[in-house]
Amino acid sequence: MDVDIGNALASVASPGVSRASLERLDERVADAHERIERGMTNREHGYEALNLPERTDPDEIRAAVDPVADAEALLTVGIGGSSLGAATIANAFESDTETVFLDNVDPAWVSRKLASLPLEETAINVVSRSGTTAETLANFLVVRDAFESAGVDWTERTIVTTGDSGPLRDLADRHDLPSLKVPDGVPGRFSALSAVGMVAAAVCGHDLEALLEGAAAERETLAGSLFECPAYAYGATTYALDGRGAGTNAVMPYAESLETFAEWFAQLWAESLGKDELGQTPVRALGATDQHSQLQLYRAGPRDKLVTFLTVDGGPDRSIPETDVDDLAYLGDSTLGELLAAEFEATEASLAAADRPNVRVELEAVDEYELGGLLYGMEAACVLAGELYRVNTFEQPAVEWAKKATRGLLGGGEFEEAEAVAEKTELR
Ligand code: PA5
Q: Where in the sequence is the active site (predicted)?
């Protein structure tokens, strides 16, 4: 990926960051880079995620999914980091396999999703690092029951990805299900380039090697200066802008196929950096759609935002048919791709003209190689930003708190978090 921070500089934008302050920040980037490299070498928790391009074994993943490789549909049951990476990859590319992601536990939605699937031709991909997440386990039990009610043997059609131990691992062992392990030291939201994100990609027939090669190429760009490394340029610029008042980061891909990427990014940024009363609030947007809604706020609302554009150079196009309606003649000379590019250029220029900071992240194409680089680059940017904020990027105590409270409220164990919720409810 390439990163252009020109429209985030103080001469163009407010709140912008000056070149001189980025140069000063670069000394901290050099130290942070050393810390990151050390963490990777020592395979420390979290930093190990940046080693995935060389550690993930595509053959192992393909062997595990072989029994269901001809499935017409794939139902992935998981939530948060155990869903969004897989969904980002699956939704980026065409496939003959229909993909459905069951993360939420809204009963009407779950029932509708299940009813829409040809269960006899559907494979189940259940993913949970801890193996204890209530939403995932509950949905899996519901899915199993639906398969049994339809007379379909779910044990023949299920792949499990989980940790070494826990209820999901026990279940996989009891039914002798094909299973993969979530790699040690890799937090959920950093696991897209492991089996967690790549089982779905394998069933859909996507190029796993290219995903990892793209990520490996991005790893090669990590260097001790933000001026030499696109990922660090992004992480350091967002950090600096946040310090100057851009507390919101609206991520706006100009590609429908990358809409889920914005969701993945929002999780990565929020759950990793939102600590100690620090962190930037990620917002999901989509170009050109949100030019007709959120853009008003970005250009004329409070000066507390950074807009991150994600653009794709090239790809399939479609010409706009000619018409004899005079006022529409200009469209007939163009393609939809040209129109989308013009929409982006107009939006980027309009924000710059209004002194609103924006950063452009550029991909050469929406393919596995480029997406692997993008996922890796943003993970590296996030790790760098975490070092600059001095937060623990790889923990998520607020998320864990809510998980325990939920389990406790349903009688799934004694948790002080659940007692706190009960007390608060009684006080109302
Ligand atoms: O990044 C994280 O740690 C979380 O978003 C988890 O991925 C999410 O809570 C799901 O957890 P698990 O994989 O244990 O079911």
A: 271 (proton donor), 292, 403
